């Protein structure tokens, strides 16, 4: 009985406390005080200014797509202001400075790897970069000179190697790999991939991958990601087979026609008259190319075109800097991206 009386007394006291006007005033005071703190918190006008101005620098990302003429075209990262990082750089002087803006890349929703299997003829037209596609099945005597020129200019190219050639010239293949260039698959016996059987096409691709990988030093081993059909001949099924072997199919935009041994100036003029952002430039180890390469590289750089591997060109990544520090949004800025 005492137990129930004790519980009843506690309930009465609790009810009285809850309904006590003094309690209500105390709680209301806490709420008011809390609200006052939030309201009185000083706003940072510099942060707000950066946030407000960020929109004018924004460049939307562009999705990869299938073009009816050019087939697969890679996407391209967008740019937006990193407000937090920019604020940290400007905070010491508490003053907005365009030179101190920090940018970050924004990836597209659709990337090249998301598209159905299709050949690639060029990179994104807004990316100021080109790539040398060097198909190798002969021309050994010119390789050393070409590699020397590429090294002198700190240029990385993509060498597409015939499997049979690699088997017969492992030292030269290793020389290309050791120089840090990208290596791709150019079939094993250089057949017309458009007309051979599907089984034979798969064998050509697999054998070439195997012999290249067997030749690679483990220290410089990189995955083979691209396939260049001999003479640019293929059918849709070949592209699908290459994709099943985890290889993208790459063609070219500009042909040097170096196998006809044009004079160096003719070769250079041919390329420069057709080159553009995203161009894939086809060449071989020939006398013409070896003699032209130095001037060609210089001429491309004068056009503010960087030279990278096929993988670099076809990635969504924007170029970090141009030599003249001009950026896509038309402002001088040494902090970020092209």
Report on the architecture of this protein.
- The chain is an alpha/beta fold and 338 residues long.
- The protein has 3 domains: 2-40, no CATH class; 45-111, no CATH class; 118-314, Alpha-Beta Barrel (TIM Barrel).
- Helices cover 42% and strands 13% of the residues.
- The chain contains 12 helices and 12 strands.
- The strands form 4 sheets. Strands 5, 6, 7, 10, 11 and 12 form a 6-stranded parallel β-sheet that branches.
- Helix 10 links the parallel strand 10 and strand 11.
- The longest helix is centred in the first third of the chain and has 20 residues, at 21-40.
- The chain is globular, with a radius of gyration of 31 Å.
The CATH architecture term of the largest domain is Alpha-Beta Barrel
State the fourth-level CATH superfamily of the largest domain.
Answer: Glycoside hydrolase/deacetylase
> What would you call the quaternary organization?
single chain
Which structural category fits the helices and strands? alpha/beta
The ordered H/E elements are HHHEEEHEEHEHHEHEHEEHEHEH
How many extended strands? 12
The percentage of residues in β strands lies in 5-15%
Low-pLDDT residue intervals, each spanning 5 or more residues: 1-24, 30-42, 322-336
Largest sheet: 6 strands, parallel
- Roughly how many Å is the radius of gyration? 31 Å
Please give the alpha-carbon distance between the first and last residues.
84 Å
Count of helical regions: 12
CATH topology of the largest domain: TIM Barrel
User: Structurally, how many domains make up the residues?
Assistant: 3
Provide the CATH top-level class of the largest domain.
Alpha Beta
């Amino acid at each position: 009985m005492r137990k129930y009386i004790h519980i009843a007394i506690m309930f009465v006291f609790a009810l009285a406390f809850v309904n006590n006007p003094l309690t209500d005033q105390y709680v209301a005071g806490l709420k008011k005080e809390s609200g006052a703190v939030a309201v009185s918190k000083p706003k940072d006008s510099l942060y707000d200014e950066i946030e407000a101005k960020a929109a004018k620098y924004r460049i939307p990302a562009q999705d990869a797509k299938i073009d009816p003429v050019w087939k697969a075209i890679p996407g391209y990262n967008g740019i937006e202001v990193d407000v937090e990082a920019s604020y940290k750089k400007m905070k010491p002087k508490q003053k907005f400075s365009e030179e101190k803006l920090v940018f970050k890349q924004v990836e597209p929703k659709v990337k090249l790897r998301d598209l159905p299997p299709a050949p690639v003829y060029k990179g994104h037209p807004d990316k100021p970069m080109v790539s040398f596609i060097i198909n190798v099945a002969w021309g050994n005597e010119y390789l050393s000179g070409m590699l020397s020129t590429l090294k002198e200019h700190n240029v990385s190219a993509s060498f597409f190697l015939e499997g049979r050639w690699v088997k017969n010239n492992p030292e030269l293949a290793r020389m290309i790999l050791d120089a840090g260039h990208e290596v791709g698959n150019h079939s094993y016996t250089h057949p017309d991939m458009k007309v051979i059987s599907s089984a034979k096409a798969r064998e050509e691709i697999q054998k070439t991958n195997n012999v290249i990988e067997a030749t690679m030093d483990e220290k410089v081993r990189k995955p083979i990601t691209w396939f260049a059909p001999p003479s640019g001949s293929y059918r849709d099924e070949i592209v699908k087979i290459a994709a099943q072997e985890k290889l993208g199919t790459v063609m070219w935009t500009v042909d040097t026609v170096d196998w006809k041994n044009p004079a160096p100036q003719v070769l250079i003029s041919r390329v420069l008259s057709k080159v553009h952002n995203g161009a894939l430039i086809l060449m071989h180890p020939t006398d013409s190319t070896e003699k032209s390469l130095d001037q060609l590289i210089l001429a491309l750089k004068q056009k503010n075109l960087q030279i990278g591997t096929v993988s670099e060109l076809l990635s969504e990544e924007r170029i970090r800097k141009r030599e003249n520090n001009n950026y896509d949004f038309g402002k001088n800025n040494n902090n970020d991206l092209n």
